[in-house]
């Protein structure tokens, strides 16, 4: 089988039966080829690592490989509807802000996978087809892929003339500049923002989104919101969410989706805001964060990083705080396992409330007398040090770490190190 020009043409040495056999074998292999292609593209081409890219990659690879299998069986030029589809792929690449090299790199990976599988198919059919079949099939694959690449290039060229696509590219360039670490120079941000039609706020915040959670969000966002949902770790840039007007804009965008809002900062520092937001989201996914400030009701909607600063700071310097906690909280190990977390929360509450039993009881949702009884037990366990104001910050940091990392048995994993002798 030879493929001069743009078509998969028959070879006189292959009769219709053999072509049907080969085409059918390739068609049976399409799911495996597609799965392997998508995995390798997402691993080797960062532009397609985002979760939202998987379905599009699977569909495009399935269309291309399935069509080639059909042309092996019934030779001819690539169908016009296939070329039209890949013109739309090219236009979508421009709209998503990806460079032409990204899809070319993905195509190279896909070709490598396809050739590998074609070799296996040819080997499996070696006894039933004429010699040289593998080389003939491979020689037909490359001009076929060239036709698809030409269709993609045509789609890109048409989309590049679209003002909406140009604006999208500019907004994504601005997003990359805002999230760069170290930060981009403010004058450069101002120039990019003007091109992208983004009104530069005095302060803004980054919102980290959990990949693939919640219902699909609307494609079109308010102009003051920069869209980073195409990234491998999706995000948004929003004006200062502490402003009630901006908060009302943000809430419907995040409804039903796991998200964390970083601290509001100057635009040049948004990379740091996103880092805090992503850390907050990761800790929340691990169950290491409570519902917010002590005594506050559970929050609906996104997690606000600024409401968890003590826990975030403690966990960011975990080794140092662990060292302190092993010493300061060792008396908790003298309690039964099912009481340790209860007493750790009580100690935290009374320290935060200045040993006011009534205020601590409100935070813990228990009777003040219950708090008083627990404090007496804590006095027995810890002695006078829990009343020493100079130790309260240290104790509170240690308790934050304990409560953020506690196992079901009431003890964190890191407390295993060197403390067996402290148990009673």
From TrEMBL:
Residues 22-179 form the PucR-like N-terminal domain. Residues 344-401 form the PucR C-terminal helix-turn-helix domain. It comes from Actinomadura nitritigenes. InterPro entries: CdaR-like_regulators, PucR-like_N, PucR_C-HTH_dom, PucR_C-HTH_sf. It holds the Pfam family HTH_30. Gene3D superfamilies: PucR C-terminal helix-turn-helix domain. This is Helix-turn-helix domain-containing protein. The lineage of its organism: Bacteria, Bacillati, Actinomycetota, Actinomycetes, Streptosporangiales.
């Amino acid at each position: 089988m030879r493929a001069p020009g743009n078509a998969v043409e028959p070879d006189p040495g292959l009769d219709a039966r053999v072509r049907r056999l080969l085409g059918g074998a390739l068609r049976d292999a399409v799911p495996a080829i597609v799965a392997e292609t998508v995995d390798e593209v997402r691993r080797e081409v960062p532009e397609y690592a985002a979760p939202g890219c998987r379905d599009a990659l699977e569909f495009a690879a399935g269309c291309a490989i399935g069509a080639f299998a059909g042309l092996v069986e019934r030779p001819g030029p690539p169908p016009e509807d296939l070329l039209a589809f890949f013109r739309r792929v090219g236009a979508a690449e421009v709209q998503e802000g990806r460079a032409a090299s990204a899809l070319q790199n993905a195509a190279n990976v896909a070709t490598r996978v396809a050739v590998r599988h074609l070799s296996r198919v040819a080997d499996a059919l070696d006894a039933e087809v004429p010699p040289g079949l593998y080389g003939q099939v491979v020689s037909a694959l490359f001009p076929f892929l060239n036709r698809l690449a030409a269709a993609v290039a045509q789609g890109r060229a048409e989309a590049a003339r679209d003002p909406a696509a140009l604006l999208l590219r500019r907004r994504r360039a601005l997003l990359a500049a805002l999230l760069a670490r170290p930060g981009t120079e403010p004058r450069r941000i101002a120039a990019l923002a003007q091109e992208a039609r983004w009104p530069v706020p005095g302060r803004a915040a980054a919102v980290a989104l959990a990949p693939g959670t919640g219902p699909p969000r609307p494609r079109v966002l308010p102009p003051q919101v920069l869209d980073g949902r195409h990234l491998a770790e999706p995000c948004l840039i929003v004006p200062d969410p502490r402003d009630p007007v901006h908060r009302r804009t943000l809430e419907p965008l995040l409804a039903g989706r796991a998200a964390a809002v970083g601290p509001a900062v100057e635009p040049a520092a948004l990379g740091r805001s996103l880092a805090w937001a992503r850390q907050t989201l990761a800790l929340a996914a691990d169950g290491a964060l409570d519902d917010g400030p002590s005594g506050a009701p559970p929050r609906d909607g996104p997690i606000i990083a600024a409401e968890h600063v003590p826990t975030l700071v403690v966990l960011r310097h975990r080794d140092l705080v662990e060292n302190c906690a092993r010493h300061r909280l060792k008396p908790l190990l003298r309690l039964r396992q099912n009481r340790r977390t209860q007493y750790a929360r009580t100690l935290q509450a009374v320290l935060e409330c200045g040993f006011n039993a009534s205020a601590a009881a409100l935070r813990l949702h228990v009777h003040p007398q219950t708090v008083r009884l627990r404090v007496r037990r804590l006095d027995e366990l810890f002695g006078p040090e829990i009343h020493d104001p100079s130790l309260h910050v240290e104790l509170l940091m240690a308790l934050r770490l304990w409560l953020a990392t506690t196992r079901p048995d009431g003890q964190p994993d890191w407390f295993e190190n060197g403390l067996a002798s402290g148990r009673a």
